[in-house]
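Cont'd.
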Amino acid sequence: MSILKNAADVLRLFGADCTDLTVSEVTTRLDMPKANASRLLKAMREAGMLETIGDTRRHRPGRLMLDLAAAFRRSSGLIGRASEVMSEVGLRFGHTGYITLRVGREVTAVADFPGTNALRVVSNIGRRLPAAMSATGRSLLARLTDEEVRALYEGDTALDVLLEKLSEVRTTGYATSSQEATPGVDSIAIAVADPATDEAVSLCIVYPHAVVDQSGHNEMLAALAAGATRIAEELGDTGFVTPKI
Amino acid sequence: MSILKNAADVLRLFGADCTDLTVSEVTTRLDMPKANASRLLKAMREAGMLETIGDTRRHRPGRLMLDLAAAFRRSSGLIGRASEVMSEVGLRFGHTGYITLRVGREVTAVADFPGTNALRVVSNIGRRLPAAMSATGRSLLARLTDEEVRALYEGDTALDVLLEKLSEVRTTGYATSSQEATPGVDSIAIAVADPATDEAVSLCIVYPHAVVDQSGHNEMLAALAAGATRIAEELGDTGFVTPKI
DNA sequence: AACAGTAGATCCATAAAATGGAACTTTGAC
DNA sequence: GTCAAAGTTCCATTTTATGGATCTACTGTT
């Protein structure tokens, strides 16, 4: 087992609910002899992948990691275009926006656009949502075939319900949710892909259920749809379904 | 030389002007036999630290890296507090804000708060600025002693000018710049530290020179100063100089 | 202040992985 | 199709990781 693999596993432990790690935590969570964990963290520290918090024994990702997310975003023309659309839409309506991508059964935000309204959904980059249970996730899952979704969710009892929802997303061209992941929060999401790199992202706008009526919803949907359609046309995304509003 | 060190060196290549890498680039930039570079990138790919862009031979940071910057931010109470202040100040004035920290002679943004004004400075996270040549960098450098600054900038011909500027920052409690790094852009920065972890960050607001007059400048400075002072009091930052406005 | 309990670091022989030069294969341009 | 550049694989050698046990440094308790 390469030490790189172990180092990557340590980095993977930094999830939504884990901001720092100790030798013991690594020992137990990765089921690894503590001698190894101790030396592994030391080596990662020396390489700059980790740093200790103050002079405690808690570790967090090193400053080296701070630029990498930015490099990732810049490397993708798709994300750049999506960012333009989201900041435009976010600015116009004052709600919070995300650009997300799917990793297996989860979606991760790669960029966030905090809203400006007094009552807005607080942006929460780094938090991972189950793809099947969020509008943004379903907009991305809908780009897979039913077979691929079946393979991905093999053994899941709610598979049929999911497939039905995805079928609707494929027809309408967009996904919505109302108070699904978070009470009081609705969202609209549209996915678009870059055929050149085979990557897909979702443009997602989240807003407080209470402050947006049907016509507000439609306006945002139209703005999002216009932006996504423009990207799809520019990149030649043949799998894109122009949203029917 | 540990492979972790080499992997970290590869990650370090992803800077402001480098969004993707090939085997050859790694070979030349790290002066490494191409056999090693090839295997190194392969191992990093398999570990998830890198991914190829589409099916080309260009590499970018893996999706694994997307959460790490967020974990870093969450691990720091200082950054959390600073974020609250910046989003408050950013929202009130509509200008773009940053939270930065110093790494050697450079400053990196760890969080950005895009402005809402029509004419605003576009946020540019991941870009590194020379600490000596930016308000935010000088606000952080001013927290060092003259001896430490001398050691850091040993051999730099502009050292004396820098020390003089830092001395002024230490007196006034804040740093400013006018059209220094970017034409037409001014900024105000105040640094604050957490004595518990020995980390310091700078709260920095950037705005178009043309649209802010002296009283607008003073208002923003006062807001930034109030927020920074609150943080310094909460954390017991004894090195903090309450800004004199 | 002495104590226990726990977290972390270090030591060691063994097992596994990295190294770099060279040969080989693939890719892309003309 | 040909060629040069880019990338991969091979090999013996050197270096590094492994994991059990031991030693050390903290944390909190009485």
